[in-house]
Amino acid sequence: MTATYLLVLTCILQILSYADSGFVSFEEARNAVIQAEDLLITGGRIHLNDKEDRANDIFMRYKMDELGAGFYDSDVNAASLHFFKGKKLVEKSKVLKFLKRMPKGAILHLHNTASVSSEWMVRNISYMPGMLRCTNIFGVSILSFRRTARDHGCVTQYVRVSDERVRSVNPAAYDRSFEKLINLYTPTPEIDYPTIKHVWNKFQNMFSTINDVLRYLPAFRAYTWRMLEEMYEDNVMYAEVRMDFKELYDYSGRLFSPERSLREVLSIVEDFRRAHPNFMGIKAIFSTHRNVERTRVFENFEMFKSLHKDNPNFVIGFDLVGQEDRGKPLHNFVAELAELPRSAKFFFHAGETNWYGASTDFNLLDALLLNTTRIGHGFALMKHPLLWNAVKKRNVAIEVSPLSNQILHLVADLRNHPGSFYISQDLPMVICNDDPGFWGTKGLSYDFYYAIMSLAPNHMGLKTLKGLVWNSIRFSVLTAREREYAFATLERAWDQFISDVLQGIV
Question: Which of 39, 206, 327, 450 has the smallest C-beta neighbourhood within 10 Å, fewest atoms?
Fold first, then answer.
């Protein structure tokens, strides 16, 4: 625990004891405890200047109007609703409009193969000439630009998507149906996804559907550019993205190595930065699925080390991905992950579970023992006081993804998300979006909406938002020079944003 935390905690206990002894009045004790707790909250010790105070007044009117309406009518309380139920409310929200214009710093937990909106995918990638579709033994549609049905487990022949669209009664209806292949949205999630098994099966099937499409070189290029564009349009300046760098292919069937994949990304990022000078670019966290054989993990870890050696400031670290509850625990791979280069880091998914005292939540312990730099999700961390105190002491940030945790069945009402506890204790944390393309959002704004409306106390506004935004740069792995530049750029963008709010532009 930090000295500040202990000091405030001591003060709270003293105030309560004084109130009990009659040394202070009830109201004085009450107000003192509330103020002391506010100091512990993420952003609680940030001091807003006069302009920020006035901007905060505007924001808090938006926030309190929405929360007030929701307090008296639960049907319009988006902060408590499943996102698919509340999405229309959120999209009309003045709070969301404010957040979309707010500089949000960095995204530190994002999977590239689910990073782009499904709407864009339908309008662009699905209209590329030559897209094929087949169905595997589980009834899952597999999309590709090459006829390798056997490799994908297909039991039907490939058909051209363009032919299916032409033959359909209504091409627009066909596109809406096509989008459902890569978007979890449903107006009735409680019926379509009654359990965590149902939603995770659909979720992982979508990766199978889209995987080979994103290995097609023209699609890979267009998709990667759009990933950067959707970040930039949402006022995100930098990201650290989970990627796997598998082989690419072209229409003639030629294959391109993981090294070529990496060069393609670097080239696209460089071109995008030239066109958008305020965007700092991305770095890559090499990821591989946790539910494979140990030999495969070892092989992929060796590939990661090779790519990192040649590009140490871009391929920055390693992670294991996939559903933790049904995947192999981190403890299984300790030997395979023993020789991490000193210049690289681990960024482990850990504790993305509701279990307590199982192999899944003990991934948190193993991640910390392996000296992870950040923790992906960390949903179960609150149940382990020694571990969350270690996280605080060692400054290991928790990558909190509110929408992902709700949609994938960890929590129904986001007001009950453990992120509220992390905010209340000022644990190191950042707000992330995980797989926004698979639930119809773009950038970070929607996750920030639930962070400030559901996770944060009702009376907290710009201080908490600013603390979370600044955390995203603080807990990144930018170099010292890059970090200095990032904070300076963020400060300028923030000041302009505050001016825009006060001028009524936001």
Answer: 39
